Every structure is written in structure tokens, then in C-alpha cells.
């Protein structure tokens, strides 16, 4: 005996890919937002370069590390913030009638993750060009960077949804809500990234990487479960 | 040794589940509940007096400041318990929305914040006389401070809504999300980050040594139960006040 529910003809995966394609198309049409983000990363890196060149050349590794993650953090908040906020309530209602809320959050997380991975890689490239590259264990650093970008995306997507609901000063609220929640992840990321900079043995970072992965999964699963409630309003 | 640890964890989980379940019963209680309130008063006052007077092992560095174990640690335990109650109310709210559950979740979280502040204050005072500084960049301390920031953000979030139903729903979601971030901050990261000055970890004569001391145990456990019951009592009073205010506003 199957419970009688209205059948959903479209599989979840189709909904996700459609939404993802929509997000990319929107991004491409409004190039100003994307351009703003790139300019943001570029100009902060350049400001770092200018201020460090006053003391002649490259920053010490710990400063390099700290600045890199601060730049990424702020870029991530800027990038993710516009996701839900640029959609009007009417638009949201329209999506609500068309797709499952799970598809919306998964597509948004996936889109933000891809966007942030691109931003992180671009940031690393610019950073290397301007401020040098003291990384000794590049594969570990890149793996950590990927985990970080995906983690930022999963955490901030739900937070941006919450902040968008509050209306008004969404961006400020997003920083207030998002920063403390991201601290556990950020601490682990900075630690692993420091290990990669110093070229420490991989076994030192094992546990932290696993914890990062577990945190990502936890936050993703929680967003998946909680988002439908957020959306119902 | 190993089986003792397993039994200890099972007991801990049982205690937590019982605490969350019983906490809700006590907070929502309609009768006066003088019995458990009297017991709370006796436990709290008794444990505080005994905490000051009882003889403690004379350990280097900590000396008499070891007595903070009877105050600081129970505060954190009760904070966690009441925050878990708050999360449970939020979950219940999402499944079955009502104004009542929202008020209860909010008031429990507020009690948790007060106890967390007390825990930070007693810890900071202790650190001043044991480590020589009010605050050190220790993973445990930073985790606790960030946990407080998260709950501060919860209050800010509640303040930024005009529509009450929306506020209730969104803050319930954030409450659950925030607690999931607090757990790694307080329990996982400090264990991963290696050496720490904070007792119960490495370095410093740890609390594990004190726990073996039987007189201290006899004061510590009653203090924990007393503080947890006190947290429920506080929540009960503040939520009753909030309900009265709601009723008053309606008329």
C-alpha cells in the first residue's frame, strides 16, 4: 500500500540541474555582479601587495596565510549574500510552485560551491603573482582550499537564506550570523593551510581534514533538512 | 578500564536524554513544584558552602583555586543542558508551530546565555589567579567565546523581524543550526588542537586527577544537579513572565 501523494513527475536531479543552469545564466546576464566579485578579490590582493611592498617584498608565511583566508572569507560572504537576496518574494513563490525546496537549496549550495572554488583558485593565482608562493605542500593546500570553498558555500547558503528572510539590512545580518558559525571551519582550515605552508608531514593534517569533511557533511545535511521549513513562509 | 569508559559514556547519554526530557517537564510545569525547587535550593546552597569549606587536595599551581570546579564546571554543564532543551523546543516548533514553543525556546536560550556568561566570568577569574592572565588564546577559551557570539547573533536575529511568526520560524532554524556549530567548537576542536592549559586536557594538573578524589566528587555531583535544576527553574520563571506579557498585550 503506497501512501497517496501527488506524484512529482520530475526527478530531483533534473530540478537541480535546471536551477543550476538558471543561476549560471542569470550570473552571465548580470555580469556586473560577477565582475564586482572579481574586482573585489583583485583589489584586496593588490592592496595587500602595496602595503607589503612598503617593507620590501613578500610577507612572512603566517601573515600570508591569515590574509589569504580573510580575503577569501569576505569574498565568500559577498558572493553568497546576493544569492537569495536578489530574488524577489514573488520570484520565490513562483519557484515554490514549480520545484521542491530541497532542489532549491541543493542547487544553490552547488552553485555557490562552484563559484567559490573559482574565486578561491583565482585568489590563489593572484596571490601567487603578487605576493609570492611560500606553499611547500601544494596538493594538500589545494585539497584544503577546495574543502574550504565548499564549506563556506554550504554554511553561508543557509545563512543567506535566513538573512534574506529578515529583509532590510541583509548583508550586515549575514555577517553577524555567518561569522561565528564559520569559526570552527575557519580554525581548521587555517591550521591545515599552515601545515601545508610549512610542508609538515601529511599525517599531521589527517585528523583535521577528516573533521573538516565531517563538518561539511553535517552542515550540508542540516541545511537540506532545515531549508524546507525556511521556505514555507 | 575500557568497559568503565563505555559505561561512563552510556550513563552520560542517559543523563543527557533524561535531563532534556525532564527539563521540559519542569519548565512547562503548571503546579508550584515546591519539592524540586526546595531540593534545588538545598543542593545549590549546600554545594556552594561545602565547595568553600571542604578540604581539597593541595596540588601545585592550582592550590585553593581548585574549588572553582564546584562552580565553573556545573555552570557549563547546566548551560549545555538548557541549550539542548532550547534546541528541542525549536525542533518541536518546526514540526508543530505554536507561539508557546517559540517563547520556551527563546527563554531557554536566554538562560543558557546567562549561564554561559557566568561560566566565562568564573573561568576568567580563575585564569587570572592560576595562569596570571584574564584571557589566553587557548582553544577551549576561544571556543567558548565564539559559542557566546553565536548565541548573541541568535538574539540579534530575533530582534530584526517584525512579523512574529516569521521570527519564530527563522530563529528556530538558526537555533538548530547554531547548536550544530557549537558542538564542534566546544567538544571536537579543543581535542584536536593538542596541548591546552585548560584542566581536563593536557598540561596543568588535570581535573581527571581531582575526580578521583572522593570528597570532591561528593560535592561536585550535587553541584552539577543543583545548577541544572536551577537553570530549569530560571527558565520556568522567565517563560511564565513572557506568557503573562503576551496575555497582557493581547488584552
UniProtKB/TrEMBL annotation, chain A:
Membrane topology: Multi-pass membrane protein
GO cellular component: a single term: membrane
Superkingdom as given in the UniProt entry: Bacteria
Keywords, in A-Z order: Membrane, Transmembrane, Transmembrane helix
Pfam families: CcmB
Subcellular location: Membrane
Membrane-crossing segments per the record: 32-54, 66-84, 105-129, 141-164, 171-190, 210-231
GO process annotations (BP): cytochrome complex assembly
Name of the protein this chain belongs to: Heme exporter protein B
From TrEMBL, chain B:
Broad class of where this protein is predominantly found: membrane
GO molecular function, one term: heme transmembrane transporter activity
The keyword Metal-binding is assigned to this record: no
Annotated InterPro entries: Cyt_c_assembly, Cyt_c_biogenesis_CcmC, Cyt_c_biogenesis_CcsA/CcmC
PANTHER family cross-referenced by the UniProt entry: CYTOCHROME B_B6 PROTEIN-RELATED (PTHR30071:SF1), HEME EXPORTER PROTEIN C (PTHR30071)
Gene Ontology BP annotations: cytochrome complex assembly
Compartment annotation: Membrane
Residue ranges constituting the Cytochrome c assembly protein domain according to the UniProt record: 64-183
Gene Ontology CC: one annotated term: plasma membrane
One Pfam family hit: Cytochrom_C_asm
Stretches that traverse the bilayer: 6-23, 35-57, 69-91, 112-129, 141-160, 172-189, 219-237
Membrane topology term: Multi-pass membrane protein
UniProt keywords, alphabetically: Cytochrome c-type biogenesis, Membrane, Transmembrane, Transmembrane helix
Function: Required for the export of heme to the periplasm for the biogenesis of c-type cytochromes.
Family recorded in the similarity comment: Belongs to the CcmC/CycZ/HelC family.
Name of the protein in question: Heme exporter protein C
Amino acid at each position: 500500500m503506497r501512501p497517496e501523494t501527488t506524484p512529482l513527475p520530475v526527478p530531483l536531479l533534473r530540478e537541480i540541474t535546471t536551477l543550476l543552469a538558471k543561476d549560471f545564466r542569470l550570473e552571465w546576464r548580470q555580469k556586473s555582479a560577477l565582475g564586482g566579485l572579481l574586482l573585489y578579490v583583485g583589489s584586496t590582493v593588490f592592496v595587500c601587495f602595496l602595503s607589503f611592498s612598503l617593507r620590501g617584498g613578500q610577507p612572512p608565511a603566517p601573515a600570508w596565510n591569515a590574509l589569504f583566508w580573510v580575503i577569501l572569507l569576505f569574498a565568500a560572504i559577498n558572493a553568497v549574500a546576493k544569492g537569495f537576496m536578489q530574488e524577489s518574494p514573488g520570484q520565490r513563490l513562483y519557484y515554490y510552485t514549480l520545484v521542491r525546496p530541497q532542489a532549491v537549496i541543493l542547487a544553490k549550495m552547488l552553485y555557490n560551491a562552484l563559484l567559490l572554488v573559482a574565486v578561491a583558485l583565482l585568489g590563489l593565482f593572484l596571490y601567487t603573482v603578487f605576493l609570492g608562493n611560500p606553499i611547500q605542500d601544494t596538493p594538500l593546500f589545494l585539497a584544503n582550499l577546495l574543502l574550504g570553498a565548499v564549506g563556506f558555500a554550504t554554511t553561508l547558503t543557509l545563512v543567506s537564506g535566513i538573512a534574506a528572510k529578515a529583509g532590510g539590512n541583509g548583508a550586515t545580518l549575514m555577517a553577524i550570523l555567518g561569522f561565528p558559525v564559520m569559526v570552527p571551519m575557519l580554525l581548521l582550515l587555517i591550521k591545515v593551510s599552515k601545515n601545508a605552508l610549512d610542508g609538515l608531514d601529511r599525517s599531521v593534517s589527517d585528523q583535521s581534514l577528516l573533521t573538516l569533511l565531517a563538518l561539511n557533511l553535517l552542515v550540508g545535511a542540516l541545511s537540506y533538512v532545515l531549508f524546507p521549513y525556511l521556505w514555507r513562509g | 578500564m575500557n568497559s568503565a569508559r563505555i559505561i561512563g559514556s552510556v550513563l552520560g547519554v542517559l543523563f543527557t536524554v533524561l535531563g532534556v526530557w525532564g527539563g521540559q517537564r519542569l519548565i512547562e510545569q503548571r503546579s508550584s513544584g515546591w519539592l524540586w525547587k526546595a531540593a534545588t535550593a538545598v543542593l545549590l546552597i549546600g554545594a556552594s558552602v561545602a565547595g568553600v569549606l571542604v578540604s581539597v587536595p593541595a596540588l601545585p599551581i592550582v592550590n585553593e583555586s581548585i574549588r572553582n570546579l564546584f562552580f565553573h564546571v556545573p555552570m557549563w554543564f547546566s548551560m549545555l543542558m538548557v541549550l539542548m532543551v532550547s534546541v528541542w523546543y525549536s525542533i518541536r516548533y518546526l514540526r508543530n508551530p505554536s507561539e508557546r514553543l517559540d517563547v520556551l525556546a527563546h527563554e531557554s536560550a536566554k538562560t543558557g546565555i546567562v549561564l554561559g556568561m557566568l561560566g566565562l566570568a568564573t573561568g576568567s577569574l580563575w585564569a587570572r589567579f592560576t595562569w596570571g592572565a584574564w584571557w589566553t588564546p587557548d582553544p577551549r577559551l576561544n571556543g567558548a567565546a565564539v559559542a557566546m557570539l553565536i548565541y548573541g547573533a541568535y538574539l540579534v536575529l530575533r530582534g530584526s523581524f517584525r512579523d512574529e511568526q516569521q521570527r519564530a520560524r527563522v530563529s528556530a532554524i538558526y537555533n538548530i543550526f547554531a547548536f550544530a556549530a557549537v558542538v564542534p567548537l566546544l567538544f571536537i576542536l579543543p581535542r584536536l588542537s593538542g596541548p591546552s592549559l585548560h584542566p581536563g586536557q593536557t598540561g596543568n594538573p588535570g581535573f581527571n586527577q581531582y575526580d578521583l578524589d572522593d570528597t570532591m566528587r561528593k560535592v561536585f555531583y550535587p553541584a552539577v544537579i543543583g545548577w541544572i535544576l536551577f537553570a530549569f527553574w530560571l527558565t520556568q520563571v522567565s517563560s511564565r513572565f513572557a506568557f503573562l506579557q503576551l496575555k497582557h498585550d493581547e488584552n
